[in-house]
Specification:
Bound molecules: guanosine-5'-triphosphate, magnesium ion
Radius of gyration: 18 Å
Strand order of the largest sheet: 2-3-1-4-5-6
CATH architecture: 3-Layer(aba) Sandwich
Shape: globular
Number of strands: 6
CATH topology: Rossmann fold
Number of helices: 6
CATH class: Alpha Beta
Number of domains: 1
């Protein structure tokens, strides 16, 4: 959401003037759209992670998702970009959509809960599906053990997940949507990997536009 440079309020996209103080809002030049898909079993915290990242709040209520989409504009390494986040259904009733999600995603956050061994086991078929279906050898995937605030209910140690992550050559991290631990990192890792695996996607940054030979370098 565009922020007013005078009062700091968030304004809806397309507003030319701040709805709070009337200040002129500078146009944001979007240099890139990223389409990321969040997958994993029911109840592991996919929606809570998305909502924490986009709206900066923790959703304590469990309301099983059919399909939700979120958008967030972020400034990343000097580039303004839009993150489109597809929050998918974990419940088995909605599994028919999985193949389509796998086809349409550009990067994938695969979530399990550290309180459920089964939720980690459920990720392997997804990992196989993503790596088989996508033609690009290295697909941006992040493996995430959510609910790390529930240490007393932990049934999955980090080693098991780390092993799976190593097998599929993707980063692994533990997160908590409740305590806002590693939530930004999930999405920033996906952007980083997208750039790493698709160097042609690199776009000119705001600061580097004057220099035509340079692009927005992350590494
Ligand atoms: N303690 C704790 N609870 C969490 C965390 N993340 C999510 N939850 C809770 O776990 C429940 C399920 O979270 P959701 O985000 O709805 O799970 P989901 O993966 O989207 O589930 P489906 O939409 O059915 O696939 C909710 O009650 C959340 O508040 C977390 O990091 N810590
Ligand atoms: Mg959900």
């Amino acid at each position: 959401m565009p922020k007013c440079s005078r009062c700091g309020s968030d304004n809806p996209m397309g507003y030319n003037f701040c709805s709070h103080c009337g200040n002129k809002i500078e146009e944001i030049k979007i240099t890139r759209i990223y389409r990321f898909v969040i997958m994993g079993s029911g109840g592991v915290g996919k929606s809570a992670i998305s909502i924490r990242y986009v709206n900066r709040v923790f959703e304590a209520k469990y309301d099983p998702t059919i399909e939700d989409r979120y958008q967030k504009i972020i400034e990343y390494e000097g580039c303004s970009c839009v993150l489109e986040i597809l929050d998918t259904a974990g419940q088995e009733t909605f599994h028919a959509m999985r193949e389509l999600y796998i086809k349409t995603g550009e990067g994938y956050a695969l979530i399990y809960s550290i309180t459920s061994k089964q939720s980690l086991i459920d990720l392997e078929p997804l990992l196989l599906g993503i790596t088989e279906r996508n033609l690009i050898k290295d697909v941006p995937i992040v493996l995430v053990g959510n609910k790390c605030d529930l240490e007393n209910k932990r049934t999955v140690g980090p080693d098991a997940a780390r092993e799976l992550a190593k097998k599929y050559n993707c980063p692994f991290m533990e997160s908590s949507a409740k305590l806002n631990i590693n939530i930004e990192e999930i999405f920033h890792n996906l952007i980083r990997l997208t750039w790493l695996y698709n160097p042609s996607f690199k776009t000119k940054s705001k600061h580097q536009k004057k220099d035509k030979s340079s692009s927005c370098i992350l590494f």
